[in-house]
Design a protein that fits this description.
This protein has 356 residues and is an alpha+beta fold. The chain contains ten helices and 15 strands.
Length: 356
């Protein structure tokens, strides 16, 4: 009979695997990832610097050179926290069942066999969040936020964004109520996979600054539970027009690209999901414009992470028969939201120039 410690270690390892599978998308969790072979880093995007080691049976991992160019690593909690941009407190709250449950409790707490939400329960949860939010209207808090981020904004009213007032939970307590943009993330077959939430300041047209009594800054942008794997999907801001569609990483970038180029835009939440985007059938889309973030060069790979993922998407879509146009900002370290603000200011200045 196997030693009890070996059996317990194997059980705990499976639980950590389940935790990571709960929060990281299927496109990241490849055979190379699970087998411990070098693979792309879910955090910094480096192509072969990441290894899932399981050294201590706690979902351990290491990246040889992460975002700042230095070695990085940790357990499964750190991997989930850094991938999702959650604070430790938010992650702890979720692990203890207040939001997105998981089979594990935090280390040091009594073990719990709390049953995780099944796919149907997750579906009902995100549908409830979506149904309880209100469609956007001119001049509401969400539209004022967008107008402040994208000057001169004129665009079709988005059907995939809604506005609600939501409790913000921290350490099992509500720390405040905030107006919240709720974004519907849709898969290529039309199913809703999750909702993404942007927490807004109650009085100013900007993201909320949420700080705990201990001085911890909590994230203003968060996904809710994921009812389905996110690979391939997007938030569909506008209907494609004349067979054309634009795709970008973020909400503000998508709107800025629309303002500058006039192509109806969707967004994918981050660069990894952008690289996995799939053009839905039945919408008549023939041409795809990719609006990449022009990130700083990664010193190890010699590549801009945002551009590398955009190029990967461009190659795949061209192989699938689509006409693809890849756009990047003129200045390194910027995105199209930055570029549009400059373009808008120059246009405004030119209108006020008095001819000699």
């Amino acid at each position: 009979m196997k030693d009890l410690s070996v059996i317990v270690a194997a059980w705990e390892s499976r639980q950590w695997d389940a935790l990571i599978a709960e929060y990281l998308p299927a496109g990241v969790l490849t055979d190379a990832f699970w087998s411990g072979r070098p693979c792309p880093c879910p955090i910094c995007g480096g192509k072969d610097r990441f290894t899932y080691t399981r050294n201590r049976g706690r979902g351990d991992w290491v990246c040889r050179k992460c975002n700042d160019g230095s070695p990085s690593g940790g357990d499964g909690l750190e991997l989930v926290r850094r991938y999702t941009n959650m604070s430790y407190s938010e992650l702890k709250r979720r692990l203890n069942g207040a939001s997105s449950p998981t089979p594990l409790q935090l280390p040091g707490r009594p073990a719990s066999l709390r049953k995780p939400l099944d796919s149907e329960a997750k579906r009902l949860r995100i549908e409830s969040q979506w149904a309880s939010a209100s469609p956007l209207s001119a001049g509401d808090h969400a539209m004022r936020y967008l107008a402040a981020r994208i000057p001169g904004l004129r665009a079709p009213m988005p059907q995939a964004l809604r506005l609600s007032v939501q409790d913000y939970w921290y350490e099992k307590r509500v720390v405040g109520q905030y107006p919240t943009i709720v974004a519907q993330f849709t898969l290529p077959d039309g199913r809703m996979a999750t909702v993404h939430r942007t927490t807004l300041d109650p009085s100013k047209p900007e993201k909320a600054t949420i700080i705990t009594q201990d001085g911890e800054v909590l994230p203003a942008k968060r996904n809710d539970v994921t009812a389905l794997p996110l690979a391939g999907g997007a938030v569909r801001l506008m209907a494609p027009r004349n067979g054309e569609l634009a795709i970008a990483e973020g909400l503000e970038t998508a709107y800025a690209a629309y303002m500058q180029f006039g192509v109806p835009a969707w967004y994918c939440l981050n660069r990894v999901l952008l690289s996995q985007f799939v053009v839905p059938d039945g919408l008549g889309i023939e041409s795809v414009h990719i609006f990449a973030d022009f990130d700083a060069i990664d010193p190890t790979t010699g590549k801009s992470p945002g551009m590398a993922d955009a190029l990967s998407l461009q190659k795949r879509l061209r192989q699938a028969g689509f006409k693809v146009v890849l756009h990047r900002p003129k200045v390194r370290g910027t995105d199209f939201c930055d570029e549009w603000r400059t373009v808008y200011q120059l246009r405004q200045m030119s209108r006020h120039v008095v001819p000699a």
